[in-house]
Amino acid sequence: MTDKTPRLRAALDGIPTYRPGRPGAASAAGAVSYKLSSNENPYPPLPGVLESAVAAAGGFNRYPDMACAGLTAALAERFGVPVAHVATGTGSVGVAQQLLQATAGPGDEVVYAWRSFEAYPIITQVSGATSVRVPLTDAEEHDLDAMAAAVTERTRLVFVCNPNNPTGAAIRRAELERFLDRVPADVLVVLDEAYREFVRDEEVPDGIELYRDRPNVCVLRTFSKAYGLAGLRVGFAVAHEPVAAALRKTAVPFGVSQIAQDAAVASLGNEPALLERVAALVAERGRVAGELAAQGWTLPDSQANFVWLRLGERTADFAEAAEEAGVVVRPFAGEGARVTIGEVEANDRFLRVAAEFRKGR
After folding, report:
1. pLDDT of res. 24
2. Whose C-alpha in 140, 209, 221, 290 is 20 to 30 A from the C-alpha of 54?
């Protein structure tokens, strides 16, 4: 026996831990508790998707198609891009980690807004690269001028979360195009569009249209949010061939299960039902945001499936009050709370908590 332990990479020291949204549980009063902490879709899988998943489950003694050929072909057709420009992974965050592995290491820098998606600092630090965090504006939006100024010769990748998680604010076309024009051609810009389906502002561009004539732009999408496949872990990137090929090299072999692949293909084939559900969630978002504004809250114009309350030092108190009322939200200590748009009853319960909290402030 020895008191020595295996030597691990110093880059892991002090790495932040990803905090998933807490699950719902019975409230203090014994009532059902709703989980509004993970931006999940409250609806079940789209029609036909569960059947596809069950059929695929009958063969899970076999490895899945490592190339995700069927899914890749379906995505290429759906978005009008070459098959060689599509790469898949275990959710958009899995693809994001592949991008870090392909572009950045010790001595390199990764630029992103803050606060933004909390996985960015984690996967950046794991890669050995250095995070360059650019504060959001007072309006909870990306400061693209400051982000462009933060790009140096050491910058290898820039994340742009649009709409931004957790604030919900989205970047419009003119300002995003100006930013892209300022970024050097050898720096990869990743447009993280996990919530793209919920965007209703016509001035917010579709990243796939921007990527077409910009070889340094990569677009991330996921089946976890609008499509309701969060538990199956399947995401994808659309990028020009050198980047997409690098993503295939850094992918975990057989990472996307056959169940996930088949469910994703079936989901793509049922767009009318998808659009109907997304429209219902967007309408609920509008109702919730309108009632919060009437209560006196000031919040960003969310283009995602959640709303953001800037609460500062009262964030923990609000989260506790919500949980006592049977609603689990996602607090960011000292900053604010992100609240997913869920079932109507869940949203109503959250609104009651917000109103009472606002009155008692």
Report:
1. 59
2. 221
